[in-house]
Design goal:
This protein is 0% helix and 33% strand. The strands form 3 sheets. Strands 2, 3, 4, 5, 6 and 7 form a 6-stranded antiparallel sheet that branches. A 5-stranded antiparallel sheet has the order 1-8-13-12-9, with no helix packed on it. Strands 10-11 form a two-stranded antiparallel ribbon. It folds into 2 domains: 87 residues, no CATH class; 85 residues, no CATH class. It is mostly beta strands.
């Protein structure tokens, strides 16, 4: 059955060592500047702001792969003092406003973490395993807070600056969406390629 596009960003899958759980930064958390008007969704890649104010994370943007833009990890929620609600709230995504003071951000930053993601085009096949790839940054779903990032076709790169490396193709359960390796928008497993705690994996 042909796959259906329904992008969901990066979903936790495991680690390269096979452990079922992996590190999410809790204490201290990363920070989002209260004035950052760009929403960040559950499952989005994030990086450190390089233009200012520095020291805060921002959503990965289309074309960000470079020597100066390095992935921090995958965003999975935040907490902040809500200006409108006048209380501390937790949210699975940063809406881009309504914070008094810095926003606490929770990020999966284990350099060996693995994630499931849907290909934007494709199909992505077995021959792409070991290649590197960027993501397409969608608008995100403001109802669910879920990312709509998807995977660009992996490439054999000598620069090594792209954020993700293809690890596996998902083929089970047979007949489920994303498991048809003959049509576009199939599901794959990726790990970090160019990440703050990981040696660059150029190929």
């Amino acid at each position: 059955m042909a796959n259906t596009a329904g992008f969901f960003g990066l979903q936790q899958w495991g680690t390269a060592s096979g452990m079922p759980n992996f590190a999410e930064n809790h204490n201290p958390p990363y920070r989002i500047a209260a004035g950052n008007a760009t929403p960040i969704f559950f499952g989005d890649l994030v990086r450190m702001e390089s233009a200012g104010p520095t020291g805060y994370i921002v959503q990965w943007a289309n074309g960000d792969g470079s020597a100066t833009n390095i992935v921090v990890g995958v965003f999975i929620g935040c907490s902040y003092q809500s200006t409108s609600q006048k209380k501390h709230v937790w949210s699975n995504y940063w809406p881009g406003s309504d914070a008094t003071g810095d926003v606490n951000a929770f990020v999966v930053d284990d350099p060996n973490a693995l994630f499931r993601i849907q290909a934007n085009t494709g199909p992505v096949t077995q021959t792409s395993i070991g290649r590197v790839a960027d993501v397409v940054v969608g608008a995100g779903n403001t109802t669910t807070g879920i990312s709509t990032m998807s995977l660009v076709t992996p490439v054999a790169s000598t620069t090594g600056f792209l954020p993700l490396k293809l690890v596996n193709i998902i083929t089970a359960p047979p007949g489920a969406n994303g498991t048809d390796i003959t049509t576009a928008n199939n599901y794959v497993v990726v790990g970090f390629n160019n990440q703050q705690f990981k040696t660059l994996q150029a190929v």
